[in-house]
# Entry
Amino acid sequence: MFEYDNRIAVGVSGGKDSLSLLHILKEIEEEFPKSEIVAISVDEGIKDYRDEALSLAKTYTSKLDVEHIIVSFKELFGLTIEDVVDNELGITPCSYCGVLRRRALDKAARMIDADRLATGHTLDDMAQTALINIFRGNIKGLTTFWPGGKKVDWFVQRVKPLCEVPEKESTLFAFLNSIEFQSIACPYAEDSMRTEVRLFLNKMENKHPGTLHTILKTVIRIAPNQNLHENVSVCTICGEPSTSTICRVCELIKMR
Ligand code: SF4
Ligand code: ZN
# Structure
């Protein structure tokens, strides 16, 4: 996933997975003098939730002596998640949040000239995303499922080093290393399809151990078939890479 001299941006939300990832990467990075780590947090503007997470991220990055930058939806897109909660189209806050956060992280990683953008997605997250893509008929999401990263023009290469680590283990790691992380859930999490899929997959994994790994391995075998270079142009509104004339970020901002 990494080269010895990479400048690595790490997405840090303040949760157990991203802080555990930062802890592990920092330890490895110290063995490679030419590599660098910068932590990036995104402030979506979620009331009574994100402030605590950002403060935990700040405390831990400073403890590890890692540079930490925070970008916000407000400054990048002119809105917060609270502004879109009651949209008339019934789009869930998570639909906004996921698309905008992805863009925010990518922009921030480009801003600091990162070679890699590492996120703390665990095995559980990967399997959930795979099923959600199937439920939504999102073929592209399935065929660009590269946890190990792939160099694609325009974007900073994204890697998910914890992709084979079950969430239970990353939680245990955080406890064993006395990492203080945010334990309350986002107030909007209940509305998301991901929560339903998570409950379903937890049941399946308990009853049929290995289900999560099997899903991940299956999707990875399908993924290399898609060429992402095909049909990428730029969004006519924001100038960011997009497969249609208006990118999903601009579409969502216009729709609210
Ligand atoms: Fe954003 Fe939804 Fe996650 Fe809350 S639960 S942080 S709204 S994606
Ligand atoms: Zn756009």
Q: What stands out?
A: The two ends are 37 Å apart (CA to CA). Residues 44, 46, 81, 93-94, 97-98, 186, 188-189, 192 surround iron/sulfur cluster (ligand 1) (CB under 6 Å). The first helix runs from residue 16 to 29.
